[in-house]
Amino acid sequence: MSNFSADNPEEFKAATRAQWDQSARGWNDQSARIREWLRAPTDAMLNMAGVRRGARVLDVAAGAGDQTLDIAARVGATGSVLATDLSPAILAFAKANAQRAGHDNVETQVADGENLPIADGSFDAVICRLGLMFYPNPGQGLREMYRALKPGGCACTMVFSAPDNNPCIAILVSTALKHAGLPPRDPYQPGGLLSLGKPGLLDDLFREAGFSAVATTKVTAPFRLPVANDYLDFIRTSAGPILQILSRLDESARQAAWTEIETKLSAFNTPGGWVGPNELLLTVGRR
Ligand SMILES: C[S@@+](CC[C@H](N)C(=O)[O-])C[C@H]1O[C@@H](n2cnc3c(N)ncnc32)[C@H](O)[C@@H]1O
Q: What are phi and psi of 61, to 5 degrees?
C-alpha cells in the first residue's frame, strides 16, 4: 500500500478492500469482544443520529454488521437498514448475521463510501462506525452521507480521537512500522487509523460537506480484557491495517514484532486485568 493514500486513492482503496476481505472472518469472530467494547458508544451514536422506530437508515462501512443489528432492532419491522461496505467478504458476514438474528429489514450492498450507488435524499439517518478514518478522502465520504439524507436527517460517525488518548493503537502502528523497516507515519495522514483524531478536523469536514448543527462528543471506551495477550489475539486475528504492515515480514521477524508489541502493551496491566485506554469521537451533523 502506498504510504500516502492521496497519491493514488483508487489503488489505496483496492488495498483496503483486500485487507478487509482478508481480515473479514477474524473481525467477525471477534464480534462478541467488539460488541462489549463499543456497546455504550454505539448506543450514544444511534441516539445522536436519531435512529428510531420506522426509520430508514444507511449504515456505511458496516463491516460484519455488529451495529447493523442494533440499528435493525431499533427501527423495527416498519423501518429498514441498508448496510454497505467496500469489502464483499466482510459484508457477507453482516448479511448472514442479520439473517441469523431474524432481521428481515436489513439489506446489504457492496459500495465504496466515497461513491454510494443510492438515490439522493433517501435515508432518515446515516451511521458510520469506525470506518471513515480509512477513506483516502473522508470529505467526499461525508458529502455522500449528506446527499443520502432526507432534509432534516442526521449522520453520526465514530472515529478514534488523538494518538495520546489511544496509546495502544499508537504502539501497534509505530512498532509494526519499525519492524517492517518503514519510516514513522504522521498519525493524521489520510487513511490511517488515527487520521481523523486531530481536534476540530472532523467538525470542519462535516461543515464543508454541507452539514449544519455539527457537534462532536468525546467518549472514553477502554478495552477491558483478562490479559494483554487477549488484546494481541484480537489484533492478530482482526486488525487489517496492522496485519497489512506486518505482511511483508517473514515468520520469525513477524514474531519478533508481536513480542515487542506484547511487552509494550503489558504497561496497561492492572490488578483487575488488562485495560487498554481508548477514546472515540462521535460527530453528528444535520442536512
Ligand atoms: C474497523 S472495520 C469497522 C466495521 C464496523 N463498522 C464495526 O464497527 O464493526 C472498518 C470497515 O471500513 C470499511 N471501509 C474502509 N474503507 C472503506 C470505503 N472507502 N468505503 C466503504 N467501506 C470502507 C472496511 O472494509 C471495514 O469493513
A: 55, 50
Report the amino acid identity of residue 60: V
Atom of ligand 1 nearest to the CA of 87: 25
How far is 120 from 101, CA to CA, in rounded Å?
30
Q: In what order do the strands lie in the sheet with 269-270?
A: 223-225, 273-276, 269-270
Specify the higher pLDDT residue, 236 or 132.
Answer: 132
Which of 12, 69, 86 maximizes ligand 1 atoms within 8 Å of its Cβ, making it the mutation to test the pocket? 86
Report the residue among 10, 17, 20, 22 best suited for mutation to probe ligand 1: largest number of ligand atoms under 8 A from its CB: 20
Question: What is the CA(27)–ligand 1 centre distance, in A?
Answer: 11
Evaluated on CA atoms 11, 17, 21, 22, the torsion sign reads positive
Q: Please give the number of the atom of ligand 1 that sits closest to the Cα of 66.
A: 9
Q: Whose CA is nearest to atom 5 of ligand 1?
A: 63
pTM, two decimal places: 0.95
- What gap in Å lies between CA 131 and CA 116, rounded to an integer? 14
> Does ligand 1 lie within 6 Å of residue 20's CB atom?
yes
177, containing H or E segment: helix 167-179
221 contacts: CB under 8 Å, gap ≥ 6? 37, 38, 40, 41, 278, 279, 280
Closest CA to 74 of 41, 102, 112, 47: 47
In three-state secondary structure terms, 29 is helix
Residues forming beta bridges with residue 113, ordered by sequence position: none
Q: Are 139 and 205 in contact (CB under 8 A)?
A: yes
Which residue type does 53 have?
R
Atom of ligand 1 nearest to the CA of 112: 20
The reported pLDDT for the residue numbered 241 is 81
* pLDDT value of position 4: 53
- pLDDT reading at 3 higher than 60: no
